[in-house]
Amino acid sequence: AFTRSLSWIPKVIFESLSYNDVVDSDMRSRVIQIVDDVLLPKSLSTTARTAGVAMIISNFEKDANAVRWLSKFLAERAEAQAALTSYLDARDLSRTFKAGSVEFLTHNVEAEEKLDALVTKFVPLNDVKKDEILHRIHEHKDKTIFKLMASIADANHTVTTRATAMDELPKRVNAVGAAASTWMKSLVRRVSMGSAFNFDVINHCAMLAQECARENEWVTSSLFLEIVKFCVAAFPTVGQGNAGECFKTMTEFFSECRGLEGKSKKEAEENDIVSMLGKILATIAPAASAVDVSELSKKEKAAMEKNDTMLQDDLLRMCTKDGTPEQARDAVNVMAAMVSKGGKGDEIAAFKPLMKALTAPQRLAIDNDRSVAVLASLAALAGSAPLAFEGGGGGSSEGRGVKAIRFAYESVLMGKRGGSILNMSTDEPEDDGAGAPKKSAKAAKAMEKQLATDRVVGAIELLVAHIRSLPIYAPNTNANISMDEGDVTSSSHVRGVFRALVGILEDDGLPPSNRDQALCNDAKSKAAIRKAAGVGLIQLCEPMKRRGEAFLDTTGFHALSKVFVDADVEVRQAAVSNLSLMLTGQGSFAKIAPNLRFLAMVVMAADMEGVGGGKSDVNGGAANIGKTSVAARAAALQCTKILRNTCDASLIQCKAQGPRGEQMFEQRIKPMVMPEFALPWALHLLAFRKETPIVKEGSNASANNAAFKQLKRRLKWLLEPLVQSLGNQADNISFLLRMTELIASSFECTDYNTGDDETTLKGSEGTAKLATVTRAAREVLLKFVKTDAHLTTFPGTIRIPGNLFKKREGAKFDVAKVDYAKERKRVASMADDDDMDMVGYENAEVEPTGSFVIDDSRDESRDMPSDMLSSPVPSKKTKTSKRRKTDWGLSPISSPIRPAAPVAKVNVSINRLDTSSSQGENSFSKPVVGKGKKGKKGATGKRKKAAAGADEDAFEFGDENTENNTKKAATGSGKKPKAMGGGRTSVRRSAVR
């Protein structure tokens, strides 16, 4: 009866969680109240509420919209609890210092900032006296208030705890005012666990799943386990609740399932019981390992130790005997969590039996059917327990982990060696697979093909996990330049892995090994390998470890872009999802400012409009990925906003250091974190795409050109976040237009040589389409122009990456002769190419409050050598522009006043920096006024020679026509011209990778 007549009610309620506080805060509060208090009220018993949750969830499809919104709601609640805990900890820390001391004031301000962040993101307070109310709550003398707040910040609290907080907290802050009382009630409602989804219900689901399995009700048991897995994904700390009761139940259930035989074992496998248990245990094990056992009795401690020993034995067998690769990976993660409290010695000792078993010669062999699960176990071990993986080797040839890496790279991936490269040992041989029934020739062939694909994927995952576990890359240390073949921590090994993964993408998913190419030649196998290689490269380029800038050159960057327009939906979704995580610093990526070329990569995430789930040649044959594509654009917006916060904070810090700090900001920090500098990378990327059309300037062919429309749509994925991140005061449009027109009129794409005397990127191919790409960018930008102020000439410094573009022969760096007024009218009369203006950003209403950590030791010159173009300094000061106070890094710091005087030509100083991956110097150079013989005005012959020669020490571009025009512009204003470039700059070249 429930299924037929009432199942629509929970569906509508959960979908209504899509209302956010910006749209309707009251509506969201009412929906949350219905979910927590009305749908399954606390008056029902725990068993009744658990059964109710099971009935509701069973009526939803796995990927139903209602389930997604419920999952998002629970995740936000977990974040709110973490934010509240962070505030309370900061407040408690401030109270440990003497009132009025510097330490007290510092930590007290930090605590209030965290409270304000909590209010801004999770529990809005709409009152004109918001700051005063929050300050009075923060300074309240009633300690019970903060104890009650701490009780609901723990996900393991009961329904009674929530009711107490709901009753007491509003009363205790009532003296602050009615607004404070109302807000406190809202805080309890937003942060605390409701009656439907809380620790008691989750723990009850775990127990019912075990009981149903004992009665051979495997389908029902699977349903309860799905609920547990769904909830612990948001609240992994439930493993710590009630002395680890949920974890204990799951481990007992896991051991029981591992001992099943016959029909029961088959039914458990059909319902994926063991795999779900493994994932649940891997999720809650870190919290369970933190349980304080000091208060347990000796009997309870002995039982827990026995339970842990049995669990480790089962997990070890799963890794080496009969577990799937996914189960083996989860098993290692559980084991790693259980020994995480110990030191280095404990970790190595705990995993020594596993490492010895996994690296036995008979297991690390090509012809071993268990090799895929073994590689998956080793990959998980390298990521979660790197000390144990290295064992006694530490990168040397003695370590078992080193031998495993050599097997994965040399034997599996490259096919350079035989089936096993490990020396035979005295280990007893394993009879893996003994007694298994023989398969037909057809089935054996299919299994061989699948095994080859999975083996290559497993090897890639192991190599990626191992490199990510290595210390931060430091190019000047001896450890990173070792050429020892057995040293798997050296830069030569890392570079080899990068090249192998790039080669896989260039070969459309074919593995490098000749042995596996014939077996992995079908579309499904190649897609799986492309996915592993693409995702692996993205993860290897994580900003914190600095290896992306060093080992992924321009050719590799273009090869990586192919995976973002893959024809396989699963491959493209995986790549775009990982890019979104990198841009926002989530998942396995640290919150470090990403390299701007990866922000530019978002242009490849755009779907083709009106194709649905299909593909289109004008989008490179990319499969449409729907919400994943829109989420990538939202991630670009969030990344842009955080980069602006980072830029503002860095500017303030650099100004405090004086002129040298300002100089460091202009030359080193701004090119790393100012998001507008991602545009040249996007233009370069699109210019080399084969689906990018060639549309001549002034031609009307673009109006009905589907490829040109898709090109503009791609550019929107980057340009719209850049402009929208500044709101109505979008003062970066003129800067972006100027950068676009300079590239179009004065630059061409450079050839890129890999170092093997083979030019893999011919600049002429990109230059042929560069005008079309810049025209599309101009039309997209002009769509954002609302007032004439958006077209005001920008006087700041524009940097063009010297490893992407070079000065066009004969170019004088003229400002493009574009009649923007006419062009603006033409663009305005054009119909919108798509409906993206109507599509909202998920979470775009929440202004990011944090900032990225800047890796200021990163050598930006490796990936962004800069040609610098400076506009002449104006002669007359105009009114102060209504722009952001810190100017977000566009104009020179010492000149906050923005002139409106346009100039026709500008003086240019070009600095072509080192593009080698092995250089560790920070070599962003400012334009220097010419001095000495080489900087002499009129040295045209020397300039041309320097421009043409790659090994010249210095060159300058100071064309007389340009200088004369600059003089005229300045004298017309009654001032002498200032030299903003034209000086000599050093040129540094070294061997390209």
Automatic annotation (TrEMBL):
Biased composition (Basic and acidic residues): 855-865
A Pfam family recorded for this sequence: PDS5
Cleavable signal peptide: none
Compositionally biased intervals (Polar residues): 914-925
Residue ranges of the TM segments: none
Annotated spans, Disordered: 851-894, 914-993
Compositional bias ranges of the Basic residues kind: 876-885, 931-946
Compositional bias segments (type: Acidic residues): 950-962
Name of this protein: Sister chromatid cohesion protein
Source organism per UniProt: Triparma columacea
Lineage: Eukaryota, Sar, Stramenopiles, Ochrophyta, Bolidophyceae
